[in-house]
Amino acid sequence: MSGEQELGITESKEHNPGDWYAEVVQKAGLADYAPMGGFIVTRPRGYALWERLQGYLDGWFKETGVQNAYFPMFIPESYLEREKDIVEGFDPEVAWVTQGGHDELEERLAVRPTSESIITPFISQWVRSHRDLPMRVNQWCSVVRWEATETKPFIRTKEFLWQEGHTAHRDHESAWEETMLRLEQYERLYEDVLALPPLKGRKPPHDKFPGAHTTTTVETLMPDGKSVQAATSHYLGTSFAEAYDVAYADEDEEERLANTTSWGLSWRALGALIMSHSDDQGLVVPPTLAPDQVVIVPIWQEETRDAVLEYADGIREALAGAGVRVRLDDRDQRNPGFKYNEWELKGVPLRIEVGPNEVEDGEATLVHRPDGEREVADREGVVDAVDDALDTVYAKLYAAAEERLEENVREAHGRGEILGTIGRHGGYVKTGWCGDEACETEIKDEIAAEIVMVPLDDDADPVHEDCGVCGAPATTTAYFAQSY
Ligand SMILES: [Zn+2]
To answer: Would the pLDDT of 7 be above 90?
Structure first.
């Protein structure tokens, strides 16, 4: 690090979002590029975000009957082949191990691209009777998908962190309820933790998870007008139970096939978070996930140093005692301006400035990260004031994301209008759809926009009687968007 200038963000979010994003991720200390293309090194500040996110979701899973387990990262080829859709769907992206030490393996091993093929056979062994159902296991792990596209930390990498839940149920109803419950928990994570209101729906049939009956999705809109598939929850029907023989003895002693589900959320959620809220000063994250929620920056002259530091440390102690993640930046060798910039770059949601005036008046100055808004709090009431300010910061981030989403769902009808609307504004175009993939292809070929989701309840959302592309009767509403 040769100068202060290199600390700051030099790219513009508005004009050069790709380079800006890469710069924020690196300069905020979240991740570095690994020596192998397609891989990243997650640094402590980046991993801390993942751990917090994990804490919320893992807690909700456990409250609703999920247990964690861990399965091997390698899957024998013969296991993968038992479900043909999985093989076909993932084949171009599977990394294989063919050698162990100096010996060629008798059967090559896939590095898991997803774990249905190794988890379902064990659920099959563990389930005997209807009393064993529902059975729910989740694992936090990494998976590998050998894609040839450009690396984008947290958004597109060959190896990524995620959780994958796998469940087996007696019947369709129970499995469908499970699928919806997990989708709602993902939605809740985006709403209550990431400050990113999502759209909730299902994927069109040609874009569902290989072998799934229905893939449901939450989608979230990025500032550049593209959609991010934020998490998916799959109702698998009985196809995996059939392939891996998940059968149970029902009350009437009859053998029946279970219905299964799987659902996953990856660190793309972090990518969406960083891309959405951050700005040209650096990282912006909501207080829910920030490793440091508050930084106290003392401002002193030689003669006021001790008094200011003592006062600042008292505030730190009060906040820490109330459970706030707070840091006092008492470094001697850096001036306050440098510290402001550094913590803004690193995304601390709230700064407290304390100088001789604050000490004298028994006050503290609070500065909100997303917009620089300042407020003065009494020393006695500082814990409550910080609590309120953190809520306000969250509300500001949420409101901005919500406004962006509301402004960027547009209706369009006719091929030209759909193309023009997405071409001009990005965002989502809502239109009627006949259900034919060819109508999506027509749009995709022109501007790389696809149907990212259709509403779960079609009846609740009828916009057009005709397909926006071909004019045939519409069977559903579709949301077109370009996506990551
Ligand atoms: Zn059509």
So the answer is: no
